[in-house]
Task: structure prediction
Amino acid sequence: MHLDLNLLERWLTGWSLARGVALPRAGGGGLVVEVGWPGQVRRHVFVEAGPALRACAARIREPLVYLKAAVGPDELRRALPAAWQIEEARYLMYCPGPMAAPAGELPAGYAVQLGVEHGASVLCLVDAAGQTAATGRVVVHRGTAVFDRIETMEGYRRRGLGSAVMHALDQLARQAGATERLLVATEQGRALYQRLGWRVVAPYSTAVLAAL
Result:
């Protein structure tokens, strides 16, 4: 899988639809999303931590603006002034078709609930008491399925619920005609997704100009 700005735009479009924010637009050699949240004003996304990213950072004066690039956190740190805070490493991941690992049975005692929020299908696994045990969402836009906010709640981990959520979301993606799948994973999540047939395209690192 070749990483370029088009791939990042497909990922970012799905993310924006899932979160109910403005769609990405081209700007300054990268992509820009006007997020408009209390904790995040805007995000700029770049393929590399090169001159375009550094020029963008030099123009930013307001806090709570995020810079993201498909590089490791150390490389992003070297590209930016000390005022920018670097967050934990993430990974842009890709799966070209239905996930390779076979879906198992839903663990006993759990049920699936489906809903819609913004542009995303939202799936929750709930226990017998109706408590949310695991959740995730998927958006399919022009053949690209973007998986987002995959989470297993503390106290429910190591029971196969994360895999169950991913397989259920993958079924929704297949029904919607997805031809590729994208997500951004934490270090912990990466191992799960690799077992399900996903592969890392690139590191994906974040810097934020924090509020004073």
